[in-house]
Amino acid sequence: MLYLEIMFHVNPKWESLCYNERNKPLTTKGVFPLNEEKYAIIDIGSNTIRLVIYLKEKSGRFQEIENVKAVARLKNYLEENHYLNQEGMGILANIVRSFKEVTDTYELNGIICVATATIRQAENKAEIIQKIAQESGYDTRILSEEEEAYYGYLAVVNSTTVSEGITIDIGGGSTELTYFKDRQLVYFKSMPFGALTLKQMFVEHDVPTEREMEQIKTYLQQQFTSIPWLYNKQVHLIGIGGSARNMIQIDQALKKYPLAGVHQYRIQENNMGYVKNHLRKFPFKELQKVEGLSKDRADIILPAIEVFHTLYEHTGATSFMLSRKGLRDGIFYEQIMHDFGITKFPNVREESFNELIVDFNINYKQVHQVITIATKIFDALRNSGLGYVGKIDYELLKRGAYVFNLGKYIDSESSSQHTFYLLANRTIDGLMHTERLKIALVASFKSKHKFKQYLKPFKEWFVKEEKKKLQTIGALLKLAYCFDSTKRNIVKDMDMLVDEEVITIHVYCDRDWMPEAYQVEKQKKHLEKALHRNINVCFCYQQ
Predict the structure, then answer these.
(1) φ/ψ (deg, to 5) at 54
(2) Cα gap 172→96, rounded to integer Å
(3) What kind and span of H or E run contains 271?
(4) From the centroid of its chain, how far is CA 259?
(5) What is the mean pLDDT of residues 127-150?
(6) How far apart are CA 405 and CA 423, in angstroms?
(7) For the segment 287-311, what is each residue's pLDDT rounded down to a tens digit?
(8) Three-state secondary-structure class, residue 204
């Protein structure tokens, strides 16, 4: 549980970025001390400028509580001589003044302000930085091309389980690419084009013509061919940023996707092509109304999707996956892990489940006992060929035990419904959407009727045997919790005998078992229905 131990000491290279409410640099005692709750990041991009404020939860996880976006399109105000003109400076000044009013309403421990491609490319960058400081008090750091690419990579490897992939982050004025293998960064490249740049270079009106799209594709093919490490990598392509998020949201809207969340959502090349062709049917006014597409991105979404599509083809990608975590999150990960001498969580999934344990006051001692009991039953079923369960399902059993019935944290009477909704619709870093749904189904198990009710919108996601397996594991977990219903850890051992009609479970206890026996007899019917076998449970004292 790494996050419980973090003291949030400042990385010296970032110390100048972190300011308290008096606009004085924080000391090296900590950027985000444990007795402080909130911090802010301002990201000055070429297309948008964003302020995000985070609240530190009791688990150590930082929850986004404010997200303010301003469409600046600073790239449009960068003159041919690479000076940001006065109109652009005025827009930037107005936005940071507005952000200052927001940050002043919070008792913030730290504020980090970073700028990317347009400010990096501007010849008058010193004047721009000074202007930001005058208007807001923010001390701004201009990220290098390498840093911008690195923080995107860092966000991906700390929020997904992808061990090898290519990341792409399309900004307004540049596109950052990285290739990582075994979770280690191998190559990076900053490309001299972004969504706004492509529009300026090739698109005359708001919506590109077919000929203009072909010109964009030819240009992109030439650009990607110049990078030797990109070709035919055949790995996951991971999109970061607003354009990738909008493409995914449109795909979900077209499919009437039943789960919430976009992080770790995957599509294939044909889905990408379908979204692109769907958007090309609309005139600009109608394009602005497309579900899933931000109105301010309507004129740049098609060039951006062409970047994703062309790169997908060039790399021979196995899929396109969205990472909702990006540059700002990468900066955050660097901060919190600095004192541990690491840059990556050892296990992203474990970290996520540890957060759930703390956030929902889950009794870890009981979880350990339930896993022990459930594993014994699971192994007996697996060895007997019952319930369609196999060795590969052990992790699902374990994860489900961690979060079984966690909805009681909200309301015990409707805990099953709350459990399913929370797990199915909450982003869990390291879990793909189907994996998240499986855990929601087994952890919320109350009865066969409820199971089918929750499964109904997703019935096409699983084959018949998979549905039966999920029902079995859910019923098994429910029974396992009955064996520790009083949380006294009285069950010390058990053995099982499985024959063609009856499963007999001998349970050895060190104390009176009456409350547990009552719950077991009441709830064993669910596993009996799943296995089509009677279950006899015999309690006795441990010899």
Answers:
(1) -115, 145
(2) 19
(3) helix 269-279
(4) 14
(5) 96
(6) 10
(7) 999 999 999 999 999 999 999 999 9
(8) coil
**Inter-axis angle of helices 415-425 and 433-443, nearest 10:** 170
Q: Where are the beta strands (DSSP E) in 116-156?
A: 140-142
Euclidean distance between CA atoms 393 and 80, whole angstroms: 60
- Residue from 317, 319, 163, 321 nearest 232 by CA: 317
- The confidence band for 6, taking pLDDT boundaries of 50, 70 and 90, is very low
Quote the CA–CA distance of 179 and 519 in Å, as a whole number: 53
Strand duo 38-44 + 491-498: pairing: unpaired
Cα separation, 470 vs 399, in Å, equals 13
> Any bridge partners for residue 140, and if so which?
113
323 CB-side CA count, 13 A:
30
- What's the whole-model pTM score? 0.89
Give the model confidence (pLDDT) of 513-526 as tens digits. 999 999 999 999 99
- Are the C-beta atoms of 19 and 90 separated by less than 8 Å? no
Whether 187 and 179 have beta carbons less than 8 Å apart is answered as: yes
DSSP 346: S
Cα 163 to chain centroid, rounded: 15
**Which long-range contacts does 193-196 make (Cβ < 8 Å, 24+ apart)?**
193/219, 193/223, 194/46, 194/47, 194/75, 194/117, 194/170, 195/47, 195/170, 195/171, 195/243, 195/297, 195/300, 195/301, 195/303, 195/304, 195/307, 196/46, 196/47, 196/73, 196/75, 196/76, 196/172, 196/300
Q: Tell me which long-range contacts 124-130 makes (C-beta under 8 A, separation of at least 24).
A: 124/83, 124/84, 127/89, 128/84, 128/89, 128/92
Which of these, 250, 270, 266, lies nearest to 319 by C-alpha position? 266
Beta strands 236-240 and 319-323, pairing class: parallel
Is the pLDDT at 34 greater than 90, yes or no? no
Q: Name beta bridge partners: 185.
A: 180
- In this prediction, residues 532-543 reach a mean pLDDT of 95
Strands of 534-541's sheet, edge to edge?
491-498, 502-509, 534-541
Which class for 283: exposed (0-12), middle (13-18), buried (19 or more C-beta within 10 A)? exposed
How far is the CA of 393 from the CAs of 378, 400, 435, 474, in angstroms?
A: 9, 11, 11, 12
> Residues 381, 531: contact at Cβ < 8 Å?
yes
Q: Which amino acid is at 152?
A: G
Cα–Cα distance measured from residue 376 to residue 476, given in angstroms and rounded to the nearest whole number: 11
